[in-house]
Amino acid sequence: MSPVRLPICLLLAGLLSASAAGQTVDPSGFGGLHYRLIGPFRAGRSLAGTGVPGNPDKYYFGAVGGGVWMSENDGRTWTPIFDTEHVASIGAIAVAPTDPNTVYVGSGEADMRSDIQQGDGMYRSTDGGKTWSHIGLEDTRQIAKILVSRTDSKTLFVAALGHQFGPNKQRGIFKSTDGGETWQSSLFVDENTGAVDLSMDPNDPNVLVAAVWQTRRPPWEVYPPSTGPASGLFRSTNRGKTWYRIDGVGLPKAVGRIGLSWVLARATASTRGGTRLYAVIDTNTSSGGGVFVSPDAGQTWTKTTGDTRLWGRGWYFGGITADPSNPDTVYVMNTATYRSTDAGKTFVPIKGAPGGDDYHGLWINPTDSKRMILTSDQGTVVSVDGAKTWSSWWNQPTGQFYHATVDNRFPYWVMGSQQDSGAMAVESRSNHETIGMREWRTMSAGGESGTIAADRLHPGTVIDENGTIERLQDGWHKRSDPTAGQKGGPWRKTWTIPVAGSPKDPKEFYASRQVVFRSGDEGNTWQIISPDLTRQTHTTPPNLDAPTAADIDSGAHHAVVFWLAPSPLDSKRLWAGTDDGLIWLTRDNGKTWENVTPSELTPWSTVGIIDASHFSADTAYAAVDRHRLDDNHPYIYRTKDGGKHWDLITHGLPEGEFVNVVREDPVRPGLLYAGTDWGVFVSFDDGADWQPLQLNLPPSSIRDLVFAGDDMAVATHGRALWILDDLSPLRQVQPAHIDGVALYDPAPAVAFIRGAGFDDGTPMPLEEPRCENPPFGAVIDYSLPRDAAKVQLRILDAKGKEVVRYASGDQPSPPDPSRLTIVPVWVRRPQALGVSAGGHRYVWGFSDRTVPGDYTVELTVDGKVVTKKLKVVPDPRSKERR
Q: How many CB atoms sit inside 10 A of residue 675's CB?
């Protein structure tokens, strides 16, 4: 075995140099900006969960797109502890049995679904999750299991599935004896086959059994991934030095994904103790799979049950856990969680709701089997009473959203479809102290993966890609399917397809399958306005292995129109992009179409989002995603001549981060935003250079960026919905470092009307999910070229009379708990004016006496005075009749 170690320092240096090369604006100039989480706290998918030896109330879980979280109160509340790292997708977590402060994390989920998210290797913490070190295996991408030695916290094994869309060599089983400083390839089958589970003999740490899986996904939408003949079980009797394939008696001849759980067996009057190795086996067919048990480390097997509830859709599940204190009790995770108390012969569901919660992993405390942590598509829950009751998954903001839209109500609402949970609407600001459960509304339109458009003529009404029209105020809805009664089917559909409202005509909407549909009457009726816009010839992508290529139905098309972008300037102009790599433009509302695809786009390059310019009808931007071709490079294209020529504009974007979305700022020409599968970037020069705009946003897959007035809403695929309030600094900052004080033109401030019974008299408890409201007042942004000795801010009314004055020397004293009648956290401390070099944001907090009108902001920095005009406008709701 030879050590395997990728050059982390070189990788990070490349990422940093790429970012620095594209940094054309000093980011300190907009350092006062920050993203604001608005929820919902309705959890997203999780696979990895574990408790902590010796600390029964402490648990960790890893979200497949939302990082690592910790609870020290049995899941009552969760705290993110991984946000300083680059990656968001977590596939495995393990705590060292001999040192509870040593925690290992494997990044990249190993569930082979179509929207699977990638990782970048292994991480280690030696202080209980306070700090982390990146410890290699960067190219594994998907890590399924971590096993830490029962006697040495630095010895561990890792099961890595490898690239999900192509071949690679860094997959299989890896071993480290120095805490991940170096790695040895322990089991490598081939470049198409990775490891999906691993278990250690509880009696003999020399003996290991690994489940390997040959699997891949094509770039188009199919439900199950492929399964190849290399899948199966391997056994080692010398701590991973050598392995041999298990062709045990009683196993199915052809297998797919396999889950494993090994437990000590109790001695009885007629049997010796020994061990039991349980397995849940998928055969990738409709028969043959089930739960199996081996008494001899995998040499012989007995099928205990073929109940399809336990192994159906086995490519997606595979979780099995035996109770470490009772070998006859075994749990299997599928659409529900099932328990057997007769050694796997019969099972009953113990947790699972209508619709299918989809469970994946269960960890049981080895010294108290009543304590357990369970992961699922709905999030992570904890039980302290043997699965009788569970904690909530409505306390984890890890939802995976595909897109976002905003409506024109005040306050505006942000809406999107959340994977596995359905669509959600979130109010951007509440009439309470914080945004919480009262502001999170479930929706029918959009489902779990669709797109949603707002009806601007009827605020609060939305439409989705299937023609579902819903009025959010009272839940009324109807469906006008764009394909109903149309000629030309069968209609193709993928997991996410678009609906788009015309920026020019509020009655006009567009939807797609392989063709484009148009409605001119607010979605009530639809007409086909295009031919099939996808490629008409079949090609097999070079990244597919033989089993995956054999799954292709040669007589069927797969591609769809994946995005639609109506022009904000020309009501007859519409851009369309397909998921097989084509871009089209119509200038006459669908009568004729022109193929304007960049020449370098190969088949199955996904045209993810096209953004039509707000300033030139011939200008458009396209985010192209090729990660399903095993190509993670970023691709953003720009045309300024209606698609005749395209420029690749990616300078400054990290090489390994594919792009999901690009958006043009609707106010400042040349200001662009991009969301990659790891974060947000900004360009101030029309895409010639990019730099990070991550600020306080945790690492996550950015799926959409949309504008609501002066704000930008962010849809993440793993950390719910966020808002970047008031983009004024970005719209005004200049590309060179400003050698002087910059006071930015403030956006109009709304005199927001709060109810007389603000927060209903009693605020929500601190333990309940809560998100930050936007400032109640006027936002004032300024930037200092150097540290200042004194900063003063005055607000003057239209007559020049001082309304309020703030000074940097006004340092508020902390509250004295000995004199308080409430917990100090509820005491609002006045904000201090920033004096350090860089950007600052200050809020002039409104009172009930603040009236709409014209004001002047006067900023004095070490004697230099700068002024700007400020307009305070009435709450739009004040015009509504009671």
A: 28
CA 655 to chain centre: 20
Q: How far is CA 55 from CA 52, 80, 95, 96, 143, in A?
A: 5, 19, 12, 13, 26
Give 189-239 as a DSSP string. Answer: -BTTEEEEEEEE-SS-TT-EEEEEEE----SS--SS----TT-EEEEESST
The CA distance from 617 to 193, in Å, is 48
The predicted model scores a pTM of: 0.95
How much is the CA Rg of the chain, to the nearest whole Å? Answer: 28
| 340 has pLDDT over 90 | yes
Residue 441 CB: number of other CB atoms within 10 A?
16
Q: How many residues does the chain have?
A: 882
Cα dihedral 767→768→769→772 (10° resolution): -80
Amino acid occupying residue 280: V
Query: Can you say whether residue 130 is alpha, beta or left, with left for phi > 0 and alpha for psi between -120 and 50 degrees?
Result: alpha
- pLDDT tens profile 52-88: 989 999 999 999 999 999 999 999 999 999 999 999 9
Using alpha carbons, select from 197, 204, 320 the residue that is nearest to residue 261.
320
pLDDT, tens digit, 9 for 90 and up, residues 712-771: 999 999 999 999 999 999 999 986 545 689 999 999 999 998 865 556 677 888 999 999
Q: Give the per-residue SS3 of 250-281.
A: CCCCCCCCEEEEEEECCCCCCCCCCEEEEEEE
> For residue 272, what pLDDT band results from cuts at 50, 70 and 90?
low
